[in-house]
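Reader question, answered in our methods column.
A reader sent in the components of a multi-part assembly and asked whether the whole thing could be modeled at once rather than chain by chain. We filled in our standard form and ran it. Here is what they sent:
COMPLEX SIZE: two components
ENTRIES:
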Amino acid sequence: MITGALTIFAAASLTTVFPQIDAHPKYSFAGSNALAAQIRQGAPADVLASANTSIPQKLYDDGLVEKPVVFTRNALILVVPKGNPAHIRTVFDLDRPGVKLVVAAPGVPVGDYTRIVLHNLKLDDALQNVVSNESDVREVLAKVALGEADAGFVYTTDARTVRGKVATIGIRWSAQPIVEYAVAVVRSSTHLKAARYYVQKLLRPWAQGKLRAAGFLARR
Amino acid sequence: MRRAALAVAAFGASFVVLAFLLLPVVAVFVRVSPGTLVAQLGDGAVKDALVVSLETTAAAQALVLLLGTPTAYVLARRFRGRKALVTLVELPLVLPPAVAGLGLLAAFGRTGLLHTSFPFTKTAVVLAVAFVSGPLYVRAAIAAFEAVDANVVAASRTLGAGAGKTFFRVVLPLARGGLTAGAALAVARGLGEFGATIMFAGSLRGVTQTLSLAVYSQFDVNFDVALAVSALLVLTSAALLVTLKWLPSLSTSRFRFATSS
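And here is the structure of the entire assembly that came back:
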């Protein structure tokens, strides 16, 4: 099946791994919420791969995409720049005054997950230290890797892509939100067959292996 | 016959161009009812963005006027290397905004050349706005100062007025039209600043989120709010442009772009 004609809208956290799974389609990586907004405005996407399940579910409820399927999972991690200027040792240092915390905006999947993590850790006050609400996870990562921010919440898979520029601080499992990625075929696609094939391919062992090699978690 | 065809083609082309330029602007207003647009402006995020935009625009343009005016006055004189200096001042005008943002980070970022703590602050927004809009003002101001008759300045000096008095009482009033026009252009450009700001200052409601950034952040949250802010920006920009073109007090010296000679 030819996938070269496809346009895949995918969460920014899939930027590195999707072209490894299939290099043929045209990809547009951004915050899942921005991609969904573009699809609502009639953007010519064939497939949407979102970093959560709620965004594709809403599009499905509105008749814009076919039934979404979960294809992978992820987890959150705290990144600090090399050198750790704010001396952050654990997540509990985040509510100290003066810490420059960069997160994704509410509505962006990783932005919502970040707020769940902080709430689970009873660290809601750390939101007072947010200096910027970014539009996707890679923007958060870039600002930390550049050393401009003291810390930022990203997916574990993102942290791996800038090894050497950031140090990571783990978040205990009990505080982790459920981070499930769902993919759906866009109903207005003019390549429905190829789009469905692409979605099926993501669920096959080979693609799942690629995802796990990139640090994603097996779907349940 | 051929002439008629050419005329039709020319009219057709200009119609297409006008329609193409106007349609997106009109679409901002017709997509939802004016009542809805006005109602969306009451959104808290819009109010916060309006305040941030007003504060940063005021600060940035004050900087631009205070520092840009003497700079333009110096650059309006003839001296060796002037052309190169004017070109340097004009460079930010043709730089992609994302490059401007990256440059500001590389210069003023915490890990940048000067190691400042500007990123993510209002100061960063002010610097980004001044960086991209200042050159518009300086360029217009150079042209305005160049247009001031050197004989009038010489006469003022011969009659005993000092350099400072001559500047404030003779040169500045004569150049006023061009300076105002340049300032209005700079304000309009500064209000629309997006790329450099989001890279250098980030986006935080009430702190660094300007109206232009609010359009972007609201796009996928509430499209109507994004439309309302866009409508507000269209109206402001149009008002500035109309003021530029028709305000009678500006006719003392017509706005011109600096010649690069």
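What stands out: Chain B touches chain A through 19 residues (CB under 8 Å). DSSP finds eleven helices and no strands in chain B.
Send us your own complexes using the same form.
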